[in-house]
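Operator note (shift B, R.M.): manual run for Bifunctional malic enzyme oxidoreductase/phosphotransacetylase requested after the automated queue skipped it. Running by hand, logging everything below so the morning shift can see what happened. Input copied straight from the record, untouched. If output looks odd, do not overwrite the archive copy; leave it for review.
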Amino acid sequence: MGLDEDALDYHLTDPPGKIEISTTKSTNTQRDLSLAYSPGVAAPCMEIAEDETDAYTYTAKGNLVGVVSNGSAVLGLGNIGAQASKPVMEGKGVLFKRFADIDVFDIELDEEDPHKFVEAVKMMEPTFGGINLEDITAPACFTIEERLREEIDIPVFHDDQHGTAIISGAALLNAADIADKDLEDLEIVFSGAGASAIATARFYVSLGCQAENITMCDSSGIITEARAEDGGVNEYKRQFARDVPEGDLADAMEGADVFVGLSIGGLVSQEMVQSMASDPIIFAMANPDPEIGYEEAKAARDDDVIMATGRSDYPNQVNNVLGFPFIFRGALDVRATEINEEMKVACAEALADLARQDVPDAVVKAYGDDPIQYGPDYIIPKPVDPRVLFQVAPAVARAAIESGAARTDLNLDEYEEELEARLGKSREMMRVVLNKAKSDPKTVALAEGENEKMIRAAYQIQEQGIAVPILIGDESEIRQTAASLGLDFEPQVADPAVGDYEDYADRLHELRARKGITRTEAGELIEGDSNYFGSVMVEQGDADALLTGLSYHYPSALRPPLQVIGTADDVDYAAGVYMLTFKNRVVFVADATVNQAPDEEVLAEVTKQTGMLARRFNVEPRAALLSYSNFGSVDNEGTRKPRNAARMLQDDPEVDFPVDGEMQADTAVVDDILEGTYGFSELDEPANVLVFPNLESGNIGYKLLQRLGGADAIGPMLVGMDRPVHVLQRGDEVKDIVNLASVAVVDAQQE
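Run finished. Output pasted below as returned.
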């Protein structure tokens, strides 16, 4: 099947379309329904009648955007009418929800008269927190947006005008930086003089470009003052008329620094690119075919051509999804009355800044695993980068507050945490630990320090103030890799082959002499195995915690820390714990990595240690020891182990959280089963610490929950060690290393 057939099938599969309405409150009982509707709904109605701003408190208005169109200028399709534009508007709603957790009603108005269109939208103002205008032909779109901005008291944004302006504006900031050119000196040529081109030219002026340096061309050639005086251009084009001789696009491009294409494909030749100034910037954004192809433009010159298009199959895609969801997120969250120029500039500057930062592994993987680094082929962030939300929305919110457009203030530090929570419970939980780590950073040794991921993680750990990272490995190689990655930091390195670490070898020999390790072998292990080196470093107090395992099998990476550091004084067994986060629930799963066939003492110890770990995430533990039996319904050696472990914990005065077992998994996590059938249980709420009877079931269970249950997994986190040690999994990403470093710092703080 081709793309068209696939798209048709995608849209017609039941339920048709791409969006639905879902409830956010319980509707299971008669009581629920009486609160949701009559008679209970009268109470919030009366509150809003007294104070209309309470609509933001008692309804979804504050998170609801109307995507409004008449289908008169649908991208690539033209004037297809209101009804035919509905799939596009639904798609816009999908993007709002996917990238910024904003709900949308799509509104298709069968009305091309601008004044009637405005009146229709004005009547819907009480419904929405903001209006996104979409696919409306020029010049009507200018009239509609200007009137709505003046006449209604919620943000109005025409994405076709301003989206491309803002995203390409971010690209221009970075392209000028890379080309070492000042914005105010740039000679800029536009191909196209429609809504998007005019809005983009205006926005470039807001960024610092000079209006007198902008030459705009339409289908008749350069827009000159002579043409404007003759009435040959409309009022919107007239503002960019220049006092220059008449000519065509080729004439305009000669000597230009920047070409901005918002017209049709194939208008620009290699000769026209060759006529431009040195290190030209070319934004050929016509879709699906750019004004000049990527390879063609690059091949036209020997110097650096910084190229952007509207296509996803080439570097530097100018994609509006980098803007509108996050602009509205920030605007809605401060209850802004408008989206003003300051907010748009803040968005562009935030995007430009983000492109200069290290790129997460997940983003790199999404684009084929090729390196992504700030430079001519990476001047704007990728749309799937989750950091865009945390970077852009707060910048927009701050600009709204400072410019007077906001109706409510925000604590911007707390706001970022609220945004994290919108992307999932795992990010919310990790934010708790990250904040704790930053409050009192410790020193974290990173074995396998020559690994690129470890180096990038060290940069982020240091940049965020989580810890002082020490990379263990060849110092020259580490510094060379850091420089090649464009990481602006001086890593702290411990090079076993260069430094004087004889005392480490002596200590390792002292610890392992009666386990068959000679002094010579101890020296070789310290110099040649970063796991042993890091373990001794932590054991000797030269670092507070250790991370290892990125390129080792888990047992191989765990062995040196167990041999050198060992378990805590009052603990005989370590265990591996995963934190699994669902939309509205967090569970800690143990043991999934260490103890193959634990007896009741081990199960009890693992439960205690996991409960302590949960509290580091500000989660009050409720522990269930799992089996295929419920409270003695089956009696054999296997079911007795968790049952006896539960009794041991219940009798232990040091255990101050509820524990019960043995019980089946659904009994542990389903409130109706727990309270209805087993009301005698020590657990008065579903368990959030799940202790499996053996390694096999624990590993299977957490992976099924992760893959089929849609849980995000953080870990494995090693508990029970005498000093903080965490063993990564092979293939972990940089964010996983940073997360476990944060956990290790909080562990060290407990020490």
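Quick read of the result: The longest helix spans residues 159-179. The chain has five domains: 11-19+32-158, 162-314, 321-422, 433-565, 575-720.
Leaving this for review. - R.M.
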